[in-house]
Amino acid sequence: MNTAIATRTYENLIDGRWVGAQDGATFERQSPAHDLVVGRYPQGGIVDLDAAVAAARRAFDEGPWPRMAGVERSRILARVADGIRAVADDLAYVEALESGKPISQANGEITSSADLWEYAATLCRHTYGDTYNTLGPDMLGLVLREPIGVVGMITPWNFPLLIISQKLPFALAVGCTAVVKPAEFTPGTTIRLAEICQAAGLPDGVLNVVTGPGSVVGARLSEHVDVDMLSFTGSTAVGRRVIEASKINLKKVELELGGKNPQIVFADADLEAALDAVVFGVYFNMGECCNSGSRLLVQRSIADSFIEAVVERARTVPVGDPLDPATKVGAIASEEQFGKIMELMDAGRAEGARLLLGGERLATEQGRFIQPTVFAGVEPTMRIAREEIFGPVLSVMTFDTAAEAARVANSTQYGLSAGVWSRDFDTVIQMSRAIRAGTIWVNTFMDGYPELPFGGYKESGLGREFGRFSIDAFTELKSVQMHLGPRTNWWHRPAGEAAR
Ligand code: NAD
Fold first, then answer.
1. Stretch 462-469: mean pLDDT, rounded?
2. How far is the CA of 278 from the centre of ligand 1 (A)?
């Protein structure tokens, strides 16, 4: 038992002040690897959320942030990036304890988050509209780009700091204000981020954080009439509820949802590289990853030897204490998630897939751990081929032709990402075109760059994050049509009336 782990107590940030829930209620989080309480947070309710929205509304309607020169906003966002880096080790520690992910992966997540803030800082000075000097001698058209307003943000527990950093700095860059509702399991680093933002000089009310249950705080944020846009990352099921609630004032909705992503390995690929990426792609973050490469499609001519190599490699992946730097697979985040993974593994067995590795809970004194698992002989119709398992479980299928691989790749409701492994130029281009997903990795897997848009086709989402495209997400366009000189196009002017 790791007795050095302490419980930290957090508060919400509303209108620049650190506060508990109005009724004093709190909730706790146990480390899923150590069964110890690691955090205590305000159990926010409707009153707290309403206060946060009112603060964000005021900050948007009357405050300096949306009106500030881009260069000033840029400096503040760059200071946030520095602030994240200054406490990176501690943020990674909190992330590992709350989520169960290995500390080495938490470290990578914090570094990537800082990079997102640094990149978004550059966008503050590149938010611009358009002009039309072609409308005739007496007209000028201006297209003004303006911040959309108050943005509600709801995030999941699997990459807490990274996912809020995919939204918040981009919304702030263009002058929006925000109310953030982090996941109940992992609010710690989002609250720490708010501290960093405050220290960096973000004006009061621009960023507000309210912790609490999704069904109360998240639901209220989704339906709130003073919120102009809702940016949600989470499950497809809750995404649907968010859309429903948002209808009340027709707020703009941007959704990053689930995935059932294929890695497609052709016989001519660099098979050693593909092997490493397949194992990484499905077991990284315990498979609790929207981009998890949870389906392996392997060409039949190499299937037997490649699948055997995957099983042998997966057998040696170190599973254990997230705080051990050597660990690659940590604890499953919650009892509910653990139950869902076990249920889907049972479904795989019942539907006739061949279990080649794992399929069991690991016997440990504390926490919930699942051995890396491989199912072969999977058919596209099976639940383990269609449903997001969100656990360390690989479903292996085979194919003969590229057309068949593309058909199987596209045979789920999801369309988030895919990996294609081949040395043949035509094959990778044709597959990249054929697969209906927002990201295609070619001879690599799960890289991410702030420059490149990210989001899903089909039921994996609505809209895109990152890059200059995120400016579109968080802005409105306003057309200003200006007449120059004396009026030339009279609607009704009685005959003979002179100009005044
Ligand atoms: P979830 O949908 O259960 O919860 C996400 C957030 O929604 C949490 O903050 C939760 O409190 C809140 N919520 C719950 N009920 C709500 C309601 N009625 N109204 C508003 N908010 C509500 O998801 P999760 O279990 O936290 O995360 C796992 C899911 O997230 C997976 O499906 C995964 O694929 C997806 N995900 C997608 C991406 C992406 O970028 N596409 C990234 C990470 C995770």
1. 92
2. 25
List C-alpha distances in Å: 351 to 240, 331, 348, 469.
29, 27, 5, 42
- What count of other Cβ atoms lies within 10 Å of the Cβ of residue 348? 24
Beta strands in 214-344 (DSSP E): 229-233, 252-256, 262-265, 295-299
Q: What is the pLDDT of residues 71-87, one digit of tens each?
A: 999 999 999 999 999 99
pLDDT at position 449 is 95
Q: Whose CA is nearest to atom 9 of ligand 1?
A: 183
CA-based Rg of the chain, rounded to a whole angstrom? 25
Region 57-76 average pLDDT? 98
Distance separating alpha carbons of residues 271 and 405, to the nearest angstrom: 17
What six digits make up the tokens of 451?
A: 């420059």
Distance CA 117, CA 170 (A): 8
Distance of alpha carbon 71 from its chain centroid, rounded? 27
The pLDDT tens digits for 124-138 are 999 999 999 999 999
**Is residue 236's pLDDT more than 70?**
yes
* Average pLDDT, integer, range 275-298: 98
CA dist 139 and 493 (Å) reads 21
Q: What are the CB-based long-range contacts (under 8 Å, 24+) for 19-24? A: 19/48, 21/45, 21/48, 21/212, 22/47, 22/48, 22/51, 23/47
Mean pLDDT of 337-352: 98
Distance (Å) from CA 463 to ligand 1 centroid: 16
